[in-house]
Amino acid sequence: MKILLADDHPLFREGVKPVLLKLDRRVTLIEAHDYPSAFSAMHKAKEVDLALLDLYMPGMSGLDGVTRFRAAFPDIPVVVLSASEQVEDIQKLLAAGALGYITKASPSDVILEALQQVLAGGIYVPPSLIELPAEEEAPRPLNNNQALTSRQLQVLREMAKGLSNRQIGEVLQVTEGTVKLHVTSIFRLLRVNNRTEAVLVIQKMGLHKLKK
Q1: Which of 20, 45, 100, 160 could tie 118 with a disulfide, CB 3.0–4.6 Å?
Q2: Which residue stretches of 97-194 are H helix?
Q3: Domain boundaries along the sequence of the chain
Q4: What CATH class does 1-129 carry?
Q5: What is the CATH class of 131-212?
């Protein structure tokens, strides 16, 4: 397994390395200290399995850097590491194609679990940032190596009823911003562009019939 670790703080890279080695005993780490060196390392490397990008590195703005990285290497799963805990940042990054968002304050076991979830085909966002208990973030396997959380399935069911984000938030007792975050993740996982396409996909899969 090859992993790109891009962060402009050497001490942080050193601290994360032991966690990454737990993913696979044969992990090969490719290090970069800014966006230009990350792009250069990716062009030189072969068969990279995962990219960990610090959101704010020299060379590009955070969102722009992630967006350009995804465009250049669309087949590489990207997980963003950041000190930010703003829901808006998470929404934009997931919309840009990131499959995970890990705060730098996370303990090593949480980082490990998050990366394992992404490598298994899911999306990881810290439960505390989307007002969900941790146990609801366990992924439910779908077709094509996709995964939906229990809460995302609830959002999908309410979406299929024609409810707006605000109405879904009222039903599930979460904020409208949290619902928007889930909707962004759902669109990414189901590879759709709007609510109508999402509902058609879940109807075809029979997910709307699953028990709560």
Answers
A1: 100
A2: 108-119, 150-160, 165-172, 176-190
A3: 1-129, 131-212
A4: alpha beta
A5: mainly alpha
Euclidean distance between CA atoms 205 and 203, whole angstroms: 5
Single-letter amino acid code for the residue at 104: K
Question: What is the model's pTM?
Answer: 0.65
DSSP 132: -
Q: Are 20 and 112 in contact (CB under 8 A)?
A: no
CA separation for the pair 113, 118 (Å, rounded): 9
Torsion angle, CA of 20/24/26/27, rounded to 10 degrees?
Answer: -30
Tokens of 57: 């590195």
Residue 40 near residue 6 (C-beta atoms within 8 A): no
pLDDT tens figures, 157-202: 888 777 888 899 899 988 887 888 888 888 888 878 777 777 777 6
131-212: same fold as 1-129? no
User: What is the rounded distance in angstroms from the CA atom of residue 64 to the CA atom of residue 155?
Assistant: 29
| Cβ–Cβ < 8 Å for 26, 11 | no
102 strand-pairing partners: 81
Plot region of 106 (φ>0 → left; ψ -120 to 50 → alpha; else → beta): beta
Q: How far apart are CA 121 and CA 145, in angstroms?
A: 5
